[in-house]
Write a structure and sequence with these properties.
The chain is α/β, with parallel strands linked by helices and about 280 residues long. The chain is about 45% helix and about 15% strand. The protein binds NADP nicotinamide-adenine-dinucleotide phosphate.
Length: about 280
Amino acid sequence: MAGTAQPMAGKVVIVTGASAGIGRATAAGLAAMGAHVVMPCRDAPKCEAAMARIRNAVPNASLEMMRLDLASLGDVRRFVDEFMAAHRRLDVLVNNAAVVKGRREVTVEGLEVTFAVNVLSPFLLTNLLLPMLRASAPSRIIFLTSALHRRAHLDLADLQVERGWGTYKAYDRSKLADILLTVALAERLRGTGVTANAAHPGLIDSDLGREMSWAQRAVKRWISKPATVGARTSIFLASSPEVEGVSGRYFADSREAEPSGEARDKALAERLWRACEGLAGLGTA
Ligand SMILES: NC(=O)c1ccc[n+]([C@@H]2O[C@H](COP(=O)([O-])OP(=O)(O)OC[C@H]3O[C@@H](n4cnc5c(N)ncnc54)[C@H](OP(=O)(O)O)[C@@H]3O)[C@@H](O)[C@H]2O)c1
């Protein structure tokens, strides 16, 4: 935008789940700062509509759609190969995409969908992109989580919630796992110039509850804030000089906050990391 600051000019950013909601608002905000924003989407027409909407607000937005279905680890690997072949750097990775499922489903690879899309695929995506993030340092990784992690307990013996599956049991655990992976990742990234932080966006009006009942969706819409508000913490973590070098933390309302005790358990984070390595077919770090 003419006359506006472009603090992200020259930076390449990936925002998953940018076809809707908080991800789309995050992509718009970072594009307005001059970043080239890659939008990995599973639904091309929906992504094109999102791009048109962003360009409406940010006419000179530099946007790129790429195909990615996070419900497939194989597709994550294909995406990373294509991204690395087409790009020379990656400055920010925003692991934003997520699902809330109405019933237990499994992916083509036999993984429970909430765990696969919200945890394991972002874990694999991040790990496969790490060489490029390291080479582009200082660079940043952001995991979208939720305050709902506070009511979750992780069962490492039942990561895919085979026992007593419930919509929020699966979702809340996945968001706890996202913080724990952020903690484990930050430990591994010490001294590399790559930071990893977790962001709670607030209660936001979006498509996330599309599989919830009509009444639940109505209540959520009534009490929630717009996606542009939800995107603020992600945009802050992706771009602000205030958080240069800050890593392994949990943020809400663009301020550091204290997550649950379980989310700060480094031994648990390490055990989850190892379990995810095994499930994603990665060697030990
Ligand atoms: N909304 C809230 O109140 C709230 C509160 C706390 C935390 N959060 C977190 O904020 C983040 C964004 O949520 P939101 O509210 O903006 O949700 P949303 O409107 O439902 O958007 C989710 C995005 O994820 C994408 N996605 C879902 N499954 C995918 C898959 N298999 N492959 C690729 N992309 C996939 C969706 O793509 P499609 O368009 O193809 O479905 C969509 O772009 C999530 O991590 C969520 O946990 C949200």
